[in-house]
Amino acid sequence: MTHSFDSQPWRQARDAQLMAWLGDAYAVQYVQMVGEASEFFDDLIDKDKPISDEWIVGMMYKLLIDMHVNPFFTRYKSELVPIMSVAINAWLDANQLETGTDTQVSRAYVLRDLTIEILLHSIQLMRGRDYMRSVSLAVREFFLHESLDEYRESTL
Fold first, then answer.
1. Residue 61 included in any domain
2. Is there a contact between 146 and 1 (Cβ–Cβ < 8 Å)?
3. How many domains does the chain divide into?
4. Which residues contact 151 (CB under 8 A, 6 or more apart)?
5. What's the DSSP call for residue 65?
6. Are 59 and 32 in contact (CB under 8 A)?
7. 92 falls within a domain
8. What is the largest CA-CA distance in the chain?
9. I need a labelling partner for 47 at 20 to 30 A (CA). Which of 53, 59, 110, 128 fits?
10. Tens place of pLDDT for every residue, the chain, 156 residues?
């Protein structure tokens, strides 16, 4: 499902905003790769969108090669990998919880978007904690579009 916010103009605005927050093209590239990988694996697991062979091959290159030669990722790998691992775990938990009770669905709604912490940590690495704190709510508001009610509807 393509969300109403996911258009070419929105992506251009996203990329410009990422550059403003991160201040480094390689950090933006890394965050974009993580975002695309998140969408890819969500579609792969949920089976709600077709996954083309081209996308599979592209993701293999991004995750196995491009990410590892990205200077930002190379420099901060030891700090980024643990956060990536925790975000994946949270997403897996969210997938299990989203078919449960109302409380479990509420928890899934929060857990499924913990990849945003990868962006926030990347901002902190590039610009420092004080700057990250000053833009943290703006980052969340920019990326977290779906209301809890909309999420509940999509899990039915």
1. yes
2. no
3. 1
4. 105, 108, 109
5. I
6. no
7. yes
8. 43
9. 110
10. 344 567 888 889 999 999 999 999 999 999 999 999 988 988 888 887 888 999 999 999 999 999 999 999 999 999 999 999 999 999 999 989 988 888 898 888 888 888 899 999 999 999 999 999 999 999 999 988 777 888 778 776
Domain that holds residue 54: 8-155
Joined together, the tokens standing for residue 139 give 């980052």
- Tell me, what amino acid is at 44? L
pLDDT at 112: 81
Distance of alpha carbon 45 from the chain centroid: 16
| CA nearest neighbour of 41 among 33, 8, 13 | 33
Question: For 48, phi and psi rounded to 5 degrees?
Answer: -95, -5
Residue 1, in any domain of the structure: no
pLDDT the model gives residue 5: 61
CA angle 128, 5, 125 (to 5 degrees): 10
